[in-house]
Design a protein that fits this description.
The chain has about 325 residues and is mainly alpha-helical. It has helices spanning about 40-65, 70-75, 80-110, 115-130, 135-140, 165-170, 170-195, 200-210, 215-245, 255-265, 270-300, 310-325, and strands spanning about 150-155, 160-165. It has twelve helices and two strands. The longest helix has about 35 residues, at about 80-110.
Length: about 325
């Protein structure tokens, strides 16, 4: 004859949820108590609805002839599309490199003790964040209307070299200048925010120990600031990937412009737009993966043992499966 199991309020551990679990007293034979888990039926309902909608979307992608997947497969690796993709990568690379280089100088200017540099940096950031990117690109594309020649020499004095603007600033160069100057205004604020996020007490302690300022910046400020800079900087690079499509107004054969040219000839608008979308997704994914591993590198100071990466977790799972299969007795089933 066993004792009846009754719930005892307040007889749960400090970490248990009295609503989520019900603990019963052990019977006379000393059986272990049973725990009733809280059911969540609405989770399954919402999950089922989401899976049904996802299945309908995938079914439409596969069966709807309007997507025209044969045309997509024909042009996704076409020579003209890959050439335009190379132009997009070059615009992004030059815009990112020059933009963050100038942005670093602007951020240092805003943080410097020189009031002239602070005012100039602030005015630059204010102006270039206020002007739309397409306006900046068109301005640099038509700079020859304002300046027919460029001179290098002594300010307000004689010129040593003189260049024709149309011969120096091509459409591609104008696009790079516009993208870099626009990117510098945003990257300057990202870098400045990362630098001021570092505790000033650490720099005071380093100065008290006699560490040079350059070494302070390289070994103390940069590793900690990068943890704040990287996520926002990656977002800016991804935005620049997509922002290069705006240079299509300058008739530069980047990815989106080339796609427009192709579907202007054959009328296959949707599959050609999918081609551009697919390549933008690939570039964004590569940037996101690079961001993940760079963040892991700079997270070493905050985590003694960083969590395993997805690749490391996959290899660990494969080793566990292999080891469990090797140690299992013959004829055993799992």
């Amino acid at each position: 004859m066993s004792a009846s199991a009754t719930a005892v309020p307040g007889d749960t551990d400090a970490g248990d949820d009295p609503v989520a679990t019900t603990t019963h007293l052990p019977d006379a034979e000393g059986a272990a108590p049973t725990v009733a888990k809280t059911r969540h039926p609405w989770r399954w309902v919402v999950s089922a609805v989401a899976l049904v909608l996802l299945a309908q979307f995938i079914h439409g992608l596969v069966t709807n002839p309007g997507w025209d997947w044969p045309t997509f497969a024909k042009y996704i690796t076409a020579k003209s599309v890959l050439a335009s993709l190379r132009v997009t990568l070059e615009l992004t690379a030059w815009g990112t490199a020059l933009g963050f280089l100038l942005g670093t100088a602007l951020a240092i200017g805003r943080l410097s003790g020189n009031p002239v540099l602070r005012v100039i940096s602030w005015c630059y950031i204010w102006a270039f964040r206020s002007i739309p990117l397409i306006v900046q690109l068109l301005f640099w594309f038509n700079i020859a209307y304002l300046y027919n020649t460029l001179s290098v020499g002594i300010p307000f004095g004689p010129a040593f070299f003189t260049f024709d603007v149309n011969g120096v600033i091509s459409g591609f160069t104008a696009a790079v200048i516009g993208l870099a100057l626009h990117q510098a205004a945003y990257s300057a604020e990202i870098i400045r925010a990362g630098i001021i996020s570092v505790d000033a007490g650490q720099l005071e302690a380093a100065a008290a120990l006699g560490i040079p300022r350059v070494r302070q910046f390289r070994t103390i400020v940069v590793p900690q600031a990068m943890r704040s800079i990287l996520p926002n900087a990656t977002n800016e690079v991804i935005s620049l990937f997509k922002g290069t499509s705006i240079v299509s107004v300058m008739a530069i054969a980047e990815l989106f412009y080339q796609v427009q040219v192709i579907y202007g000839r054959n009328g296959r608008v949707v599959p050609l737009l999918l081609v551009a979308t697919a390549w933008y997704i690939v570039l964004t994914t590569i940037a996101s993966v690079a961001q993940y591993y760079i963040e892991r590198h700079y997270a070493k100071g905050t985590q003694r043992t960083p969590p395993p990466s997805p690749v490391q977790r996959a290899w660990q799972k494969l080793r566990e499966v292999a080891e469990s299969g090797a140690t299992a007795p013959r004829g055993a089933t799992r």
